[in-house]
Amino acid sequence: MPLPMDNTRFMRMTALGACAATLFSIGLLAQDAGRGTPPAGAQPGAGRGRGGGRGPGQAPIEEVGFQRIFDGSSLKGWDCDPDFWRVEEGNMVAETRPGHMPKQNIFCIWRDGKPADFDLKLQYRLSGAGGNSGVQYRSIERPDVAKWVMQGYQADIDADERYTGQVYEERARGFLANRGNFAYVGDGQKSAMVGTVGDGNELTAFIKSGDWNDMEIIARGNTLIQLINGHVMSVLVDDDKANRKMDGLIGIQLHVTQAGEKVEARNIRIKTF
User: Most CB contacts within 10 A, which of 53, 101, 256, 267?
Assistant: First the structure.
């Protein structure tokens, strides 16, 4: 007869099963670094192993069913502090400078929905020494702190690329899935690593510092997947029923910093399920 299964092993298998089911349902089981530009010196197919990655002639998934939620000419549908946010050359822009910055992290909040299961795609650019930003999702507002303050999941971005790509939870549980990690949060437990989706340091080679990057956030049930430039950066399976959020607001972050920073976003689109 099989040996009894301890709780740690059971949670790990549950997390793996949940993530595998989600990846299969959205057609990502074969998704690899093939959709982006490989690091300098990398050989085609290197590190994928037999049968890994994209086969000859196989195209990326066609983008269909997405709704644009930023029109590129106004902040219609969005709510943010006009003292910091504007539209410029088709981009949503937030900027700080010494002596002119918010008292706490603030967000430009999308007001036309609180999506649960979705694919969110956008392009972002972050400039300025020490800059920090992020894309908030499945979040709530915190008017008790200040207007335009949010709490919830965040696809993290920073100019030094220390945190870019990780799953962070603003004003709550903090670091949930570091870049390169497949993480799991058990009910009432802290986040723990189940496995990896790549080496966190090596994944920075696919991030274009100070330039435009493609970001994708996939949310299905309790599984969250974050990609930059076609590469999976982090995966989280969240079974913490008391603290997780299964739907909520979307926002772009302007982070408090000691120096000036400029955050830009464009081509923001979403597909809900």
Answer: 101
